[in-house]
Amino acid sequence: MTDLIIENVSKAYGKTLVLHGVTIDVAAGETVVVCGPSGGGKTVLLRLVSGVVEPDAGDIRIAGRSVVGLGPERRDVGMAFQNFALYPHLTAFENIASPLRARGLAAAAVNRGVQEIAQLLRIDHVLKHMPRELSNGQKQRTSLARSLVRGPGVLLLDDPLRNVDAKLRYEMRLELPRLLRNFGSAVLYVTQDYKEAMALGNRIAVLRGGRIEQLAPPGSIYGQPESVEVARLFGDPTINLYPARPRRGAGGPTVELFGRAWRLPQACEAALERDCLLGLRPEDVRIENEPERDAVPFELDAVTPLNVRGVLYLRGPQGEELLATVPERDIARFGRGHRRVFVDLPAERLHLFDRQSGQRLAGAPT
């Protein structure tokens, strides 16, 4: 069983620090998804693990052994790229077979290994085709097959679904977890797509500005984001954020928003009298057509169907913007035109962040 440990790794190019003190552990059979905005250092991290480049500081261990200074061929690492990186002059079969031939395996063993992985990925019918004859989906599966065929201890996947169509991307989000479990590799998967990260990762490492901002299971990343930026990265539509200053009320912490005071959980005591950002995810907004106790009247400006949910664009008493979502079955009861609705904010689903640092202060449980 092989695990991967990246410990306090840093890398700079000239005066530009790309990675700073990055620490991630990946157990055998686990998939850790590295997610974050473009330019955050995700691909550089994969290159360091693969041995294409070396870190300036820190250590990388595979199966308990430091691999710093070892070439890629000595690291027991497989890698698949977003641009497929297939050899254009070789058939799909030969592309997949190349790692096995490089290890000097006999022809029968090579053929058996290629056939097995090709059947698993459902590309055995295109093994004689050249890359130019393959669809993007077939190219993606061929690239993945090549990285998996020798059963590497560590598998690095650099945004492998980025260049495939939406249908195949959805299918592979369902298939990949099962497939990767079969091999038992320690998987480091890079993507900018938060939905992909949530679907594929046992844990998610949020990489921003060369640093790991949060490393946790998907539910914790979404439900208890460590910072405003993490909260913004995960969710579509993005989280609603408002300047706020929690105060002590008769029944506990309160915050003024939309012209009225809202009660906060007792856990928000630490945020009293601090300049904060109050966060509320669109799916947590409660909306009714008729006034209810303590609900605030809002103007409903637009309703947009979005896959299995509808997005509601609302304006508050002072013109404040609020995005909310409702299940698809509820869209019809709000219509499509301008009208008045009534909004309630569940105290248990509110998030509080420090306005200056952006760090989490308190908020919704997982």
Short summary:
The protein has 366 residues and is of the alpha+beta class. 23% of the residues lie in helices and 34% in strands. The radius of gyration is 25 Å and the shape is elongated.
Can you offer a commentary on this structure?
The protein has 366 residues and is α+β, with helices and mostly antiparallel strands. The chain has eight helices and 22 strands. A six-stranded mixed β-sheet has the order 6-7-8-3-9-10, sandwiched between helices. A hairpin with a 2-residue loop joins strand 13 and strand 14. The longest helix is centred in the middle third of the chain and has 18 residues. The model has no long low-confidence stretch (mean pLDDT 89).
Main traits of this protein?
single chain, 366 residues, alpha+beta, six-stranded mixed beta sheet, five-stranded antiparallel beta sheet, 8 helices, 23% helix
Counting helices, strands and paired strands, the structural category is: alpha+beta
**Beta strand %:** 25-35%
Q: Number of DSSP helices? A: 8
Order of helices and strands: EEEHEEEHHHEHEHEEHHEEEEEEEEEEEE
Main β sheet profile: 6 strands, mixed
Assign a percent range to the helix content: 10-25%
SSE diagram, text form:
Layout lengths: L3 E10 L2 E11 L4 E5 L6 H9 L6 E6 L2 E2 L10 E4 L11 H11 L4 H14 L15 H13 L5 E5 L7 H18 L2 E6 L2 H7 L2 E6 L2 E6 L1 H6 L4 H6 L6 E5 L2 E3 L2 E6 L2 E4 L12 E5 L5 E3 L7 E11 L2 E7 L5 E7 L11 E6 L6 E4 L5 E4 L3
Parallel strand pairs: 3-8, 3-9, 6-7, 7-8
Antiparallel strand pairs: 1-2, 1-4, 4-5, 9-10, 11-15, 12-13, 13-14, 15-21, 16-20, 17-18, 17-20, 18-19, 21-22
